[in-house]
Amino acid sequence: MVEALARLRGRLGAFADNVTWFHEVGSTNDVALNFAELGRPEGTVVGSDRQTAGRGRHGRDWASPAGAGLYISVILRPEALVAPLLTLAAGVAIADGIREASGLAVSLKWPNDVYVGTRKLAGILAEAGTSGSGLNYVVLGIGINLMSASYPPDIVGRATSVEVELARPVDRGLLLATCLAALVERSRQLASGSSGTVITAWRRYGSDMFGRVVEFTVGSEIVAGIAENVDEHGALLVRTADRLVPVMSGQVRWQ
Question: d(Cα 12, Cα 9) in Å, to the nearest integer?
């Protein structure tokens, strides 16, 4: 892992020298959130071989068997104007990094889940806050399934791994390095005003999801429609019976 990071050092920016690795933690996001509150800088990376309390979006557990995945969290301190697009940019970056390191043809499901075909390969959890120093931060928790493992029964039929898809092992260090390098590049695009480049990339990765039926909640009502696109703000555009609805947050159920 150290060798791969050194090899891509020129592309890693602030991530090059701020990696803290554990054999086991409850949640890398919890550690990174604590570091962010203490004022650790953008580019801080927290990783672990195993999580005992990993979590995904909407409070779901994230299965984190020892050595079977890449479990990391990174601290970013984006400008307020680009922060809403960071979740989508992170999904694009992880898709970029996986493709570069493995050659896998991956896709994205809104907002940032990474898939191969119909099976989930990676997920991202974004958590934001303000540290005691007054600096805003976003912690991105990233979980990538690297090899076959004993997953809980409720997800075994919906998950896959890089090793299963390639039918060979993958270099974990290289995957870490390429994902971080891609995250640096996509974050720079947002910061430089090139958010359109990020949205275009997301649409390319997410094209397989367009045309599918989705359900989402408006107040107490469950609304169904067809996912058509994402707009320039990162909202999922859903065509209902009578209008086009931009969905910015909340749980979307894909049919």
Answer: 5
Alpha-carbon span 45 to 29, nearest angstrom = 10
3-state secondary structure of 17: helix
Angle at 250 between CA 123 and CA 159, to 5 degrees: 25
Whole-angstrom CA distances from 1 to 5, 75, 191, 210 are 6, 20, 28, 37
For residues 253 and 237, the answer to whether their CB atoms sit within 8 Å is: no
Residue 253's pLDDT is 87
CATH 3.30.930.10 residue ranges for the chain:
2-206
CA 46/CA 51 separation, integer angstroms: 12
Predicted structure pTM score: 0.91
Determine the 3-state secondary structure of 31 from DSSP: helix
Say how many CA atoms lie within 13 Å of 239 toward its Cβ: 7
What is the per-residue pLDDT across 187-208, written as a single tens digit (0 to 9) for each?
999 999 999 999 999 999 999 9
Q: Which fold has domain 211-254?
A: SH3 type barrels. (2.30.30)
Question: Rounded to the nearest 5 degrees, what angle is found at the Cα of 251, between the Cα atoms of 176 and 205?
Answer: 45
- Read off the pLDDT of residues 48-100 as tens digits, 9 standing for 90 and up: 998 887 665 545 555 566 678 899 999 999 988 888 899 999 999 999 999 99
Q: Output phi, psi for 184, to 5 deg.
A: -60, -45
| Residues forming beta bridges with residue 145, ordered by sequence position | 69
Residue type, 241: A
Q: Where in the chain is the domain with CATH 2.30.30.100?
A: 211-254
Could you give the CA distance from residue 208 to residue 62 in angstroms, rounded to a whole number?
24
As assigned by CATH, the class of the 2-206 domain is alpha beta
